[in-house]
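Typical record is below.
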Amino acid sequence: MNYLPKALTKSVLLSKGSVFRDLDRSRTYRYLNELKTFKYPNIEYLENIADTTLTANIYLSPKKKYGLGFDVNLSQSNIQKVGVSFSSGVVIRNVFKGAETLQISVLGAIGASKDGAKTDAKFFDINELGADIKLNLPRLFFPLNTEKIIPKYMSPSTQISTGFTGQTNIGLDKQTINGTFGYRWFPSEKVTNTLDLVNMQYVRNLNPNNFFSVYKNSFSRLNNIATQSYETPADLLTTNSFGQSELLVSKADDFINLVTTDDLFQSSNTNDYQTVRNIKERKNRLIQDNFILASNFNYLRNSRENSFDTDFSIFRLKLELAGNLLYSASKLLDLKSNSENAYEVNGVPFSQYIKTEIDLIKLWDLGRSNVLAMRSFFGIAIPMGNASSIPFSKSFFAGGSNDNRAWTAYDLGPGSSGNNNEFNEANLKIAFSLEHRYNLFGKLNGAFFVDAGNIWNVLDDVTDERATFDRLQSLKDIAVGTGLGLRYDFDFFIFRLDTGFKAYDPTYGDQNRWLNDFNFSHAVYNIGINYPF
């Protein structure tokens, strides 16, 4: 046989001599389907008229050993004019004759930045390459017997993966290595539990000295202060083609150090001093290499019965803990910390935080092809012990085709700070969306939506009052966008076009925040595949 008998018998929840239960049949179907190795498993019952016993015959038709997939995506953000990403992977089934699945995939992306960091004339100045290997075992890979805790009718499985990505030509040039070891099981037909015992990520920035060539908004603010507010030494300045003085990019760090140690400037120009300090803190965080060793648990309850169901709810809860084991071990072993009082692994301070996300989606079928869809989201990540901030890869952002559609991705927030950075992110997020979907004619559908939300910094090292969450009064900085959308149903996917308008913009500060940019000249156009939620 091509399959180990034990691998197949473990998938069968029917047992000889037991009373017939249709639940056992349903669970067997589910377990066999979760193997992703067989096509449409079939169970037939033959009745013995003499004693009313049943014989169950199970027919399995194996899928092809190898499968190939390909995927293409388009994206756009406030720093990227256009981006194209692709991924391709091969699936190898029944690798060790126990219905295991091995997936090897490669990914790539190219993009054109709005303000390229390079001086050459290439249109696509952003690119990324990566590869992943994932192994799925249809059982819990654990040294102890877990049958009493997670019985086999819950279809338990083990996922092991590792991957590498490299980003080049964006200035900082980043490499990322990741690996996971975790479990998944289904307590009921509607509930999915996922537990990652180990989720490791290492991020290395190859060109941190090129920060101000990439984040030009930050440099522009420094330049304004250097040429208008501060008596900048001549060796830090140059003269541009218009005969105006401007700060040398190569001297930006020297200027920051000069300002942040100037007590007189701090007392006389508090706002400009704080701006320079904020830029310094953000730069240090974004160019810092990250080592993340985390564990997380994800609970998902989905009441959707099929792809045609338009009256259902989805609830997701995620809890993630990182760095606690390393921090405790460092304390116990009395290891030396660095100059910032942080412990390191191979010269890199490890991240420590607690992060949670709560996501609720609810759809109501109003009849006559009318559907009301609602989504609410809350997320917070709090740095602890060994860290004073959250790694960029674990922070939250707002805006984009699946968020607040009146702002482009990374363009909204934090708070009312005014979108000063190319990538605006923070460690607290609140989002709410309400969308009315209706049929126009044929396969063309329309939508009217209202999106609300923002991101803030909380309990970290950011001190800008406009960007931090300060009790309930910060809720006045929730941005509101509204708009109209079109969706065309191609049966196997939905093409989506949304136009978002800024109804309430918190960046206007103490001024009137309503309907200032509520027009087509400030509208944001989003293209997406399938519904936003």
Remarks:
- The chain is about 15% helix and 40% strand.
- The chain has a mean pLDDT of 90.
- The radius of gyration is 27 Å.
- Residues 270-287 form the longest helix (18 residues).
